[in-house]
Amino acid sequence: MPSQMVVFSMLVAIEMNVLGLNFFEEVLEVVEQLLEKMPPTWGGYWLLNNFPGSFEDPGSKIMINYKGLLTFLFNKFAPWDGSEYKELEPAVNWARSKQVPFTFTNKTDFWDYEKDVNDPPIVRTYLAGTLLQPGRVGKEFRAFMREQLFVGVARDLWIGCTGILLGGKTTEGSLESTPLHPGYRSTVTSLSCGIALADAESGAPLLNQTTGNNELIEYFQTFAKGKRNFGSGMYLNEPWKDDPYWKEDFWGTENYERLLLIKRL
Ligand SMILES: *[C@@H]1O[C@H](CO)[C@@H](O)[C@H](O)[C@H]1NC(C)=O
Ligand SMILES: *[C@@H]1O[C@H](CO)[C@@H](O)[C@H](O)[C@H]1NC(C)=O
Fold first, then answer.
1. Ligand 1 centre from 45 Cα, in Å?
2. Given the CA of residue 204, which atom of ligand 2 is nearest to it?
3. Using a 6 Å cutoff on CB, does residue 205 contact ligand 2?
4. What's the pTM?
5. Is 8 left (phi over 0), alpha (psi -120 to 50) or beta?
């Protein structure tokens, strides 16, 4: 681990009807530009959800209700060297033009970063993932995500995505040396999306929550399947449980056939 790190963080409320604002399209474009340009010294997360929330406007002290939040939480695994604003230029420029606050923070080491980072409390969720590929994240991807999170019945459901930037040396390494899905070597984000099940958000103790969530799970299959159009491969730790294409998505067809042959020896 490097001796120092830099953290970039920014929260963007997406729909703010009271202000007549909807940042979805432009802020997703910022994400796409970053994915194309960010050097591999940067890793971290972008998180998108359709949850409702509110905050107090610092100027007017008025409470602003919003729907949907995009969180940028990027880590540079290297000491501050002055290139940070330039490297994250699409986000920095956009934020300045909209007066959306953001911060860069120096961290002395990995623990200095990790000690304040908490996962949210346990929520029962049905997940589907894909490894987003360069060149496939664009206008159609935005339209798809908007439809799945912010249009029609989706608005009444709790849907959230975690985009994990792999960064580092993950694009290196030969494809032949391991059975890893080739999509890992080119991906720009491992995107895991999930739908919160039943009363998961109600605060009822986990073991008291209802388990009859078939309708929600069935509903989510369209999202799970459609997301594959923008990626190739799937992070095995957060897979789509009912993926009918699991051979292709987990291993890639060629690797799967080879692995099967070896298993049958
Ligand atoms: C981080 O630390 C460097 C000195 O090591 C300093 O020049 C820079 O301004 C700091 N950045 C922030 C955002 O505090
Ligand atoms: C949760 O379920 C247990 C066992 O059925 C029951 O004893 C307990 O009262 C329930 N708790 C709540 C908060 O509903």
1. 22
2. 13
3. yes
4. 0.90
5. beta
Task: Kindly tell me if the per-residue pLDDT of 252 is higher than 90.
Answer: yes
Q: What is the pLDDT of residue 123?
A: 79
Q: Which of 102, 97, 5 is nearest to 46 (CA)?
A: 102
Ligand 1 pocket, residue 219 CB under 6 Å:
no
**What span, in angstroms and rounded, lies between the C-alpha atoms of 193 and 190?**
10
Report whether residue 203 contacts ligand 2, using a CB cutoff of 6 Å. no
| H helix intervals, 53-192 | 84-87, 89-98, 110-114, 139-150
Strand 125-132 versus strand 42-56 pairing type: unpaired
Which residue's alpha carbon is nearest to atom 3 within ligand 1? 80
Backbone angles phi, psi at 235, to 5 degrees: -70, 120
pLDDT in tens, 109-118: 888 888 887 7
